[in-house]
């Protein structure tokens, strides 16, 4: 079959690889009908996540049709022929973390837990196509994919909704939603979202659905800010104005009540010398993050507010504003998305028309064009916001 | 999860002395490099032009000893480098003694005496450190995990003994031969297998199981596992202690290598798989680590892409 593979830093190749087979009794094989490129795939391609190997199949946002199930899959839960969206974290459904609905922290789904434990103190769960640190699972930017614990994760969807309407239930819609949910939004809240990429857009949508008084979106790409404006959000371009001052203006000097970092470790900063400082430290590997968005969110948030982090971080951060965080009673909340929790309720919101995930799709391309798709998405060419690939 | 090693405890005094000698080297080296003239005067060789060049060089050498002894993992080889250095120093001192008289000779005799004393200590440390490696010793490993299953179930699974190879890396088979006795077979270095008999020596149902090898096992071993109800009232904490008498000589070295750089990591991984088997029914496989309990032997892993039919046929353990 054809699959998108990691071929060293800054290189992806579509290669011919073997078809997947059942390895564990509770596996299913899914024929992929739609898949997408995620911003976090760029962290892998840019070389900021360790333990990638030449030939790793990428992709953790995908959906399709079940074509084979292992002998251990409960037929009441999943059968051949079912149309499913697959959540990006792999979760067993039986361990302590899964029992607490912390699916992305599953204690059993990562065969390389020992390595992850060395880096993070405790292991991570497995994730499709997302380095060997998260298990070494082949991803879904392919014609077929093996889905472990298929009776736990995949969400069955009926024929009434299109692929494009439900595909993002696999990751970015639940991720944006969890970012807003962690903010514990009150009707009087002004919520600021750093990043107008796909996750930032969905975090803003979710903040509105959860009842925020006003949502402000921060980025520097005019076309991405335009997309947020068209959806009805206030925007700030950090290339044009000072973000903190503008946020103070917008909130009568209070600062946003809740802040969402939907950027993560490859942020850019409006000021060239600040940007250069972290870029150089990252290049010589003396820090793994460029945390401009997070620093700014912490400094901008009103005292007693919540800073919710859904942008991805990988290791060690420099110049974390711990003083602001501690002295001003801020709450920091974060996590890899526990996607399983949110898929069904969000599917219902899509069915009711409360959220339209298709609004962010700008590019539809065949899987074979993946290298070009990565290129334009990474370099923000051709006003690219989100690419859907079809095998 | 933690490692305690009785073998390490046994070597601790030698290791400590190695570190102390490293500190001596550090002080001497710093003095010789930073203040060579003072050192030359104290040693009674301040009249020689050769010593002006030699003393800082000897100082630099001392700093190398210090780095090895203070930062290195093994005391033995670095202690031997100090013995070699002592021999050089004594030879130089002998030459210097032959050429001098009076007060300078007196100082040289004092320095030579001190170097002879330190040489004796260096030789003792080097010999002991080398012997300790050859003698083998006991390796004791501890690990713990929490399994979200009731105590009775986890206890019965372990007490069944035949289940142990499903999650323990090196175990191939455990056959129950009596109420308390069993026969164990494990893979050994160089593609061999070893077998031994074991008996349960301490048991309280639902609480703990203790066992030990009997007869002439190649690697005499004991093990004990406790099953403790976790505070959540649904899970069981499993605490394991295993001890292996590693034989001396070549076999011991091979066994030690087989355990790997971090033997406790193997036991940790064994317990992770125990948890997988009890909670999910089997050992979890990925494309990068497709062979379950053999995962750790395969680092760096194969790429995270599906296996070819040939790989599948070849890789599946018998």
Automatic annotation (TrEMBL), chain A:
The keyword Secreted does not apply. Keywords: Metal-binding, Oxidoreductase, Zinc. Belongs to the zinc-containing alcohol dehydrogenase family. It comes from the Bacteria. Its cofactor is Zn(2+). Transmembrane segments: none annotated. InterPro entries: ADH-like_C, ADH-like_N, ADH_Zn_CS, GroES-like_sf, NAD(P)-bd_dom_sf. Residues 198-268 form the Alcohol dehydrogenase-like C-terminal domain. The keyword Kinase does not apply. GO terms for molecular function: oxidoreductase activity. The lineage of its organism: Bacteria, Bacillati, Actinomycetota, Actinomycetes, Pseudonocardiales. It comes from Saccharothrix xinjiangensis. Residues 27-155 form the Alcohol dehydrogenase-like N-terminal domain. Pfam families: ADH_N, ADH_zinc_N. This is Zinc-dependent alcohol dehydrogenase. Coiled coil: none annotated.
From TrEMBL, chain B:
Transmembrane segments: none annotated. InterPro entries: COQ10_START (IPR005031), ORF3 (IPR047137), START-like_dom_sf (IPR023393). Residues 148-271 form the Coenzyme Q-binding protein COQ10 START domain. Signal peptide: none annotated. This is SRPBCC family protein. SUPFAM superfamilies: Bet v1-like. Pfam families: Polyketide_cyc. Residues 285-318 are annotated as: Disordered. It comes from Saccharothrix xinjiangensis.
């Amino acid at each position: 079959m054809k699959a998108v593979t990691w071929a060293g830093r800054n290189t992806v190749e579509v290669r011919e690889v073997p078809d997947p087979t059942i390895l564990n009794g509770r596996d299913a094989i899914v024929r992929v009908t739609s898949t997408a490129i995620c911003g976090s795939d760029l962290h892998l391609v840019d070389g900021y996540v360790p333990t990638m190997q030449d030939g790793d199949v990428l992709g953790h946002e995908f959906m399709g049709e079940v074509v084979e199930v292992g002998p251990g899959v409960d037929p009441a839960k999943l059968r051949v022929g079912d149309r499913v969206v697959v959540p990006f974290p792999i979760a067993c459904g039986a361990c302590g973390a899964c029992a607490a609905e912390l699916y992305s922290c599953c204690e059993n789904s990562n065969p390389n837990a020992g390595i992850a434990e060395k880096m993070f103190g405790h292991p991570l769960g497995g994730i499709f196509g997302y380095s060997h640190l998260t298990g070494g699972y082949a991803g879904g930017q392919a014609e077929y994919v093996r889905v472990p614990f298929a009776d736990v994760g995949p969400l069955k969807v009926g024929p009434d909704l299109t692929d494009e309407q439900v595909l993002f239930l696999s990751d970015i819609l639940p991720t944006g939603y969890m970012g807003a949910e962690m903010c514990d939004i009150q009707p009087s809240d002004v919520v600021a979202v750093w990043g107008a990429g796909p996750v930032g857009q969905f975090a803003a949508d979710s903040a509105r659905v959860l009842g925020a008084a006003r949502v402000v979106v921060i980025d520097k790409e005019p076309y991405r800010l335009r997309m947020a404006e068209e959806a009805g959000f206030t925007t700030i371009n950090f290339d044009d104005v000072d973000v903190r001052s503008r946020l103070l203006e917008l909130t009568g000097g209070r600062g946003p009540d809740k802040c969402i970092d939907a950027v993560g470790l490859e942020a850019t900063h409006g000021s060239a010398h600040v940007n250069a400082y972290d870029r150089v430290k990252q290049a010589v590997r003396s820090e793994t993050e460029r945390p401009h968005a997070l620093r700014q969110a912490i400094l901008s948030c009103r005292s007693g507010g919540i800073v919710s982090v859904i942008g991805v971080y990988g290791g060690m951060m420099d110049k974390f504003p711990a003083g602001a965080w501690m002295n001003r009673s801020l709450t920091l909340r974060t996590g890899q998305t526990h996607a399983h929790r949110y898929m069904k309720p969000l599917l219902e919101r899509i069915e009711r028309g409360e959220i339209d995930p298709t609004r962010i799709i700008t590019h539809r391309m065949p899987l074979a064009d993946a290298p070009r798709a990565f290129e334009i998405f990474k370099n923000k060419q051709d006003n690219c916001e989100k690419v859907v690939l079809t095998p | 999860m933690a490692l305690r090693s009785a073998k390490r405890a046994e070597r601790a005094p030698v290791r400590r002395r190695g570190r102390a000698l490293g500190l001596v080297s550090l002080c001497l080296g710093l003095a010789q490099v930073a203040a060579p003239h003072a050192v030359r005067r104290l040693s009674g060789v301040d009249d020689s032009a050769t010593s002006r060049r030699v003393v800082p060089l000897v100082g630099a050498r001392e700093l190398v000893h210090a780095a090895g002894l203070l930062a290195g993992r093994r005391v033995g080889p670095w202690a031997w480098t100090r013995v070699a250095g002592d021999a050089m120093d004594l030879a130089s001192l002998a030459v210097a003694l032959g050429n001098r008289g009076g007060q300078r000779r007196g100082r040289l005799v004092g320095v030579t005496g001190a170097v002879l004393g330190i040489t004796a200590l260096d030789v003792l440390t080097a010999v002991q450190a080398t012997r300790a490696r050859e003698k083998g010793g006991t390796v004791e490993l501890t690990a713990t995990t929490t399994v979200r299953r009731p105590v009775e179930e986890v206890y019965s699974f372990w007490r069944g003994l035949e289940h142990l190879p499903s999650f323990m890396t090196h175990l191939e088979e455990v056959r129950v031969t009596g109420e308390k006795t069993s026969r164990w077979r494990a893979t050994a270095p160089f593609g061999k297998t070893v077998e031994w008999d074991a008996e349960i020596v301490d048991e309280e149902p639902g609480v703990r199981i203790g066992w030990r090898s009997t007869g002439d096992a190649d690697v005499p071993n004991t093990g004990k596992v406790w099953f403790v109800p976790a505070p959540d009232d649904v899970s069981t904490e499993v605490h394991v202690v295993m001890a292996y008498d590693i034989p001396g000589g070549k076999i011991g070295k091979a066994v030690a290598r087989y355990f790997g750089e971090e033997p406790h990591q193997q036991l940790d991984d064994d317990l992770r798989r125990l948890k997988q088997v009890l909670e999910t029914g089997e050992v979890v496989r990925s494309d990068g680590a497709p062979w379950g309990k053999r995962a750790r032997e395969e680092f760096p892993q194969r790429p995270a892409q599906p296996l070819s039919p040939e790989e599948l046929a070849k890789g599946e353990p018998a």
